[in-house]
Amino acid sequence: MKVKFLIMAMMIIGAMCGCTAQGSESAQEGCDVFKTQGGTTVKMYCIKHGSVRMQVGEKWIYVDPVTTAVKPETDYSTLPQADYILVTHEHFDHLDSVAINQLSKPGTVLITNARCHELLGGKGDVMANGDSRTLAAGWTIEAVPAYNNSPDKLQFHPKGRDNGFVLTIEGMRIYIAGDTEDIPEMAAIKDIDVAFLPCNLPYTMTPEQCAHAATMVKPAVLFPYHYGQTDIQQVVKLLDGSGIDVRIRAYQ
């Protein structure tokens, strides 16, 4: 049954969540707060672009952390170290060994695809499309397809190489799409509470594609991310009346 968690707040400013300034721009993060079926608090922090961090109880999850390749510069050594780092694919705005090293501690679990594993010198656990594994008690992760299917975009993200991820944490399901278009496989991704869908040209989706992807996945809450110079308010307008709570954060 979808919406298995309590949405606690639309937006909580950084100071209330114990957020810290990031990088040379001293930009302050905000966070959105949820609860799992088991009552664990989940805080989702916008860093930038495709970089997300989540606090689940006392555990920290980072997705595609990047230091200088995307502005503003982020110094991850000032942030809590990671229990889990997820890297969707090899592009410079998603794979950053400096960020990974700053966030890593003994016991950090790094999950990548095969190409990232190779570029990192054999670091990380490889997952391919269709793989799943248990992360902790009540926590699972699935690697799902992420690719381009428009004829003029096939060179960016070929089918079968890159991952999206579905995290299930105490019944709460979080879909992090990675760089992808509105591919048919999204129709099989069910019961999603929170989704992160990319929306920028020429690499991922138009606002219309992003809205279509959202209607396939049907998340309770949607964060359009990785949107660059896109007029992201178009996604809000296109999904008006859909029942999807579209939240715009600073994921340029």
Could you characterize the architecture of this molecule?
The chain has one domain (about 5-245): Metallo-beta-lactamase, Chain A. The chain has 4 helices and 17 strands. It has helices spanning about 95-105, 115-120, 205-215, 235-240, and strands spanning about 5-10, 20, 25-30, 30-35, 40-50, 50-55, 60-65, 85, 110, 125, 130-135, 140-145, 160-170, 170-175, 195-200, 220-225, 245. The longest helix has 11 residues, at about 205-215. The radius of gyration is 17 Å and the shape is globular. Mean pLDDT is about 90; it is low at about 5-30.
SSE inventory with pairings:
Layout lengths: L6 E6 L8 E2 L4 E2 L2 E5 L5 E8 L2 E6 L2 E5 L20 E3 L10 H7 L5 E4 L1 H6 L5 E2 L5 E5 L2 E8 L15 E8 L2 E5 L17 E5 L8 H11 L3 E5 L7 H6 L6 E2 L6
Parallel strand pairs: 7-8, 8-9, 9-10, 14-15, 15-16, 16-17
Antiparallel strand pairs: 1-4, 2-3, 4-5, 5-6, 6-7, 11-12, 12-13, 13-14
Give start-end ranges of low-pLDDT stretches: 3-29
Look at the structure and give the mean pLDDT: 90
Q: How many helical elements?
A: 4
CATH topology: Metallo-beta-lactamase, Chain A
Number of strands: 17
**CATH homologous superfamily assignment:** Ribonuclease Z/Hydroxyacylglutathione hydrolase-like
Strand order of the largest sheet: 1-4-5-6-7-8-9-10
Largest sheet: 8 strands, mixed
CATH architecture field: 4-Layer Sandwich
- Distance separating the two termini: 32 Å
Please compute the radius of gyration using only Cα atoms.
17 Å
CATH first level: Alpha Beta
Total domain count: 1
Give the proportion of residues in helices. 10-25%
SSE string:
EEEEEEEEHEHEEEEEEHEHE
Structural class: mainly beta
Described by the principal axes of the CA atoms, the overall outline is globular
Give the DSSP E fraction (strand runs of 2 or more residues). 25-35%
